[in-house]
Amino acid sequence: MGNCGAMEILRELKEKCETPNGKLRQIANAMKDEMQAGLASEGGSELKMLVSYVDNLPTGDECGVFYGLDVGGTNFRVLRVQLGGKEGRVVKQEFMEVSIPPNLMVGTSDQLFDFIADELAKFVGTEGEGEGEGEGEGGKKRELGFTFSFPVKQTSINSGTLMRWTKGFSIADAVGRDVVMELAKAMERKGLDMRVAALVNDTIGTLAAGKYLNVNVNDNDGGGDVVAAVILGTGTNAAYVERVDAIPKYAQEGIAQSEEMVINMEWGSFTSSHLPITEYDQALDAESLNPGDHVFEKIISGMYLGEIVRRVLCRMAEEAAFFGDVVPPKLKIPFILTTPEVSAMHHDSSPDLKVVANKLKDTLEISSTSLETRKAVIELCSIVATRGARLSAAAILGILKKLGRDKVIKEGDDEQKTTVIAVDGGLFEHYSEFRHSLETTLQQLLGKEVSSRVLIKHANDGSGIGAALLAASHSQYNHINI
């Protein structure tokens, strides 16, 4: 075994992936600067800083039955929530998941939206079974929050044009059309009387869910200002609440009607000379479907961490005979190693590192590894995940700096409320070493006094319940109790 050469490759990687706090502060400052440039003008930054038109986040007073529709891939979910105001909170919640037939992913716009409207109508038909009343009573239209996780150019709170398809969809006649209008026409064809109150993405849904859950907690349970939401899953993104007067490109349009606006950062596109990029990242980027784009996402999100680990293992096998004289054929297959597998190996605390041995055997068909080899694999997983987690913390610090929340402000006798960042996504939820590293890094960067006033909170299922909550906060009935 050429473990000597392999350890050298690992040492070199660790050096290139290092993220000392000084470097992270530079990255946070760069993030803040790019945010300002993106808010100033269209195309002013790699960060798109999209105006979401969401200017009402839930207050906790919302009452009634609202729907959420979450279309983000080969499945979609329909959700119904009954809200009971500050006292009742979420009285009842039900959902249904539906697979989209493959032929509809490449058919026509009408076919796809008719299918969605049909399933939605079936779900609405179950309303009022058992407890709870439908909001269709009293001449009121049912209201729906629509999460559509494809590239959309938003034009108002409930309209937006599809820019292009991703995730295996290819429906030519839908591109350039208003997706809300397409859904509304399909609902009309199905005789479903429902209004789309809000069109959002999963990050903004997470912000709404975090805000709602937070305004409904007891004061002693960590209530505070939810100022931003971050998705750390297969992909990554962030959204936050900005003052309208700090968005020059929006103010120029002369349509500002409120003081605050949610901004969808699309932070996966962030880039900076301070980012610790290795040759493995450069090769992955060059061979990807979008070279040069979403550089930040490619070094911190769940889609790519496993692939970075595979690429390093491949080099260790080829140049240092890490797994013996023959390079395991499976190791050469891109994306064969997933981030959940990396997480499982990273968390292995068994004396003989049995989990690592089994993952290498089952996934890569590498058997009879030594304990030394398994330890090196864990070290590799740790280097790649720690870099991603620490960079995520630096990016969050960038948002806090932009909002002036990175320091303690005392106004008279009143100290500012706790600042809350709502986070969702499988990477954050299930990869506990990643999550712990992110949280401790942010504490280090903020210092003891400030970090005691900043909370990272898990806001589960933002793309589902968040959409329904945004329908409630943008209801045309102004939350009249029903």
Automatic annotation (TrEMBL):
Gene3D superfamilies: 3.30.420.40, 3.40.367.20. It comes from the Eukaryota. Signal peptide: none annotated. The keyword Ubl conjugation does not apply. Residues 10-212 form the Hexokinase N-terminal domain. Pathway: Carbohydrate metabolism; hexose metabolism; Carbohydrate degradation; glycolysis; D-glyceraldehyde 3-phosphate and glycerone phosphate from D-glucose: step 1/4. One of its GO terms (molecular function) is glucokinase activity. It catalyses: D-fructose + ATP = D-fructose 6-phosphate + ADP + H(+); a D-hexose + ATP = a D-hexose 6-phosphate + ADP + H(+). Its EC number is 2.7.1.-. Residues 228-472 form the Hexokinase C-terminal domain. One of its GO terms (biological process) is glucose metabolic process. It holds the Pfam family Hexokinase_2. Keywords: ATP-binding, Glycolysis, Kinase, Nucleotide-binding, Transferase. One of its GO terms (cellular component) is cytosol. Belongs to the hexokinase family. This is Phosphotransferase. The lineage of its organism: Eukaryota, Viridiplantae, Streptophyta, Embryophyta, Tracheophyta.
